[in-house]
Structure formats: C-alpha cells, structure tokens
Fold this sequence. Notes:
By secondary structure, chain A is an all-alpha fold. Chain A has helices spanning about 10-30, 30-40, 40-50, 50-75, 80-90, 95-100, 105-115, 120-145, 155-175, 180-190. The radius of gyration of chain A is 19 Å and the shape is elongated. The interface between A and B is large, with 44 and 45 residues.
Amino acid sequence: MKGRPVTFDNEEVILKAQKVFWEKGYTATSLADLLTTTGMGSGSFYNTFKGGKKELFRKAIQQRREAFTQFKAELNKSESPIDLIKDFFRSIAAADKQTHLQGCLISNTVTEMTFVDLDLENETIAILKDVEKMFAAAIEKGQQDGRIRNQTDPVILGRYLVTFWNGLNVTRRMYPDNKILQKQIEMQLDIIS
Amino acid sequence: MKGRPVTFDNEEVILKAQKVFWEKGYTATSLADLLTTTGMGSGSFYNTFKGGKKELFRKAIQQRREAFTQFKAELNKSESPIDLIKDFFRSIAAADKQTHLQGCLISNTVTEMTFVDLDLENETIAILKDVEKMFAAAIEKGQQDGRIRNQTDPVILGRYLVTFWNGLNVTRRMYPDNKILQKQIEMQLDIIS
DNA sequence: CTATTTTTGTATCGATTACTACAAAATAAA
DNA sequence: TTTATTTTGTAGTAATCGATACAAAAATAG
C-alpha cells in the first residue's frame, strides 16, 4: 500500500481517549484535551476519526464493551459463573482511589447523555441490559445447581445486581475507602446466596 | 428602597434553571439555555447571580436540598420513619417517564462533577451522606421498636439504601416502566424488614 | 418636579468550542 | 527517480462559550 505510514496506534489512541472520557465525561472533555493526551495533531485526528469527537467516544465505549464481552466469555467457560461475578464485585474493594472516583464509563454515560444525546444514551443502556442478562443467566444457573438458595426470579435478581453495580459506582465516590466498600459489597452479595 | 423594581421572582427562576440542569447536567446546559427558559436577559441574569452559571447551579442544588430537608422534618415527626422512606421509594413506581429519565439531580451531579469541579462534587456528596444518615437513623429506630427484624448494623443498611437510590436512578432510565420498577423496588425494600 | 438608585435589554467582549483547508513530509509503486 | 498516495503539522474557520459594558427604563426619595 502506498502513502506515508501511520505513526499512531489506533487502539492505543482510543485507550488514552477513553481515560479522559471516563474521568470527565463526554461534554466536559474538549478536543484540546483529546489532542494533548493522545499526542495527535488535529490533522491526524480528523483523518483517523472522520466522525470527530463523537466517533472517538463511540469507539471508546465499544472498546470498553469488549472488556465486558471478554468477561462474559470467561463466565461461559466457568462451572460457577455466579462466583466469578461475586469475585468481580469483591475485587472492587481492592481498587485504588482513582479507580473508585472514575466509576463506570457506561453508567456515567447513561447518566450524562439522557436529554443530551439519544444515540449514546441508547447505546450505553443496551450495554447495561446486556450486563443484566449476563447476571441473570449466572444466577439462574446457580439456582439450578443448588449454589444459590434464594429462589427469587433470576430476572429480578439480575436487575438487582445491575442496580447494585450502578449504585456502587456512586457509593465509591462517596467512600473511596476499601474497608467500607468491602463491608457494603459483602452485605449486598449476601442477598444472592 | 429606591430603584427599578424586579420583574423576576428569584425562587421561580431558580426552579426553572433547576429543571434544565436536572435534565442536561451542568456542563451541557448553556447560558443561552438558561436565559431562554428563565426569560431573563443576560443583564438581569448577571445582576442577580453575580457568580454566573455556577452560582445559579449551586442555588438550584440548594433548592433541591431543601426538598430533602422538608422530608427529613416529616420523618422526625413520624412514629415510623422507615415506613415513610419505604413509601417514598414505592412512590417512584408511580412517576412518569420524564421523571424517570431525569433521575436524581444530586446523584447526577456527583457523577458528572468528579474530575471536573471539586466544589460541586463535595457539595453533592455531602448531601448524599446526609440522606444516608437519615436512612440509617430511621432504620435504627425501626430495629429498636421491632418494626424491622433485620438486625444488620443500621450504618450498613443506610448505605445500602443510598446505593439502592443511586442505582435505581440508572435503572429507571433503563426501564422507565412502572410495573418493572415496582417489582424491583419491592424486592429491594424486602431487605429492610 | 428633580435627583438617585436599581433593573433591564442590547450590543459586544475575548476565549474556547469542534472542526477544516492545505501544503509539507514520508512512504510505496512504477 | 518519478509519480501516486497517504499522513502529518500548522494555520485558520465560523460558531458558540460564559461573561461585561453601558445606556435606557422604571421605580423611590426628597
């Protein structure tokens, strides 16, 4: 192929952009922010992301979604997916302050984008519903093989876990304190047992 | 007192501004948005709110806080504050779609303002902690007079309710559906019984 | 009435917003 | 080496951002 070779690694750029979006949200992140953190000039930027800021944000969201897809693949291989999910929640109590304050990129975006951008709102809501489905499936399996005594409808318990997830990402900002979070997480996971 | 009389009712202006901020958040709300919805010219605007956009936002937050303070006063008069709190949660399942999508102004602001504005972040976190305290106090009372069997530390259960509250305000956007929300709310309130 | 004080509307400020135009740079193919 | 193709960096675009300057308007006080 002809032409000057690219100097920027696309995935790396998206990852750097993702971090800024994650911290400040879509609107509060300026193009200048993105250019400085990625190291790109606006020439390369718009050559790479023809859809501009919004396209890059979508790519960042999708990249984040892949992390979730990977986790889901692990669950499918697991004997006891609900335990992996519980471990995931428990691992939050081992994160650092920065991570606590960032919360969840997807939850943040749902909250930010209602009444602002319908596309992004729907896109992120769809991801959360996917997460919810995954939770519900793991719970149903746990109920069937006797690992979970609670026989409440797995759909309800799945929604309980997404609600917990979204709420926890605010609680983490109130208390970026691993001891407090640990107690809280244990108490709420006890429901699913 | 001398001078041209004011034509704008201050509390009314703040209420109108509050609605826009509630929908779109702080950053995405432009001064033009505020001027059109309040009907003010920028002259009156900066004459009334010398701190500009941020001062008005703070006033909107404080006005919202007063609604909470009023509720807290009712709780203090009540024989069974925990039942009032449960009623409050249950009443969410009777709200309209617009209300569901708006979520909670305070939770929204915590999420939006981390890494953007430390003042506003701290201010709104303080409010949530106040709400949490109120929950915990009501739970403790309920445990003492036998209305609540669950003897888990009221501090933990109070945090459980704020976490629920914050999570529910995302779930409402995923499912602005009163039947779904009702089931979810009942299930989560059952913990406190 | 006149003088004083405050609010209001308008016109506008510099700064920042997201985004483009375009030529120089850097490669591969002919 | 020449030509074609693509990326890169820089300069600059119009539009919008939040915020001001200021005079006309509208009241009260004397």
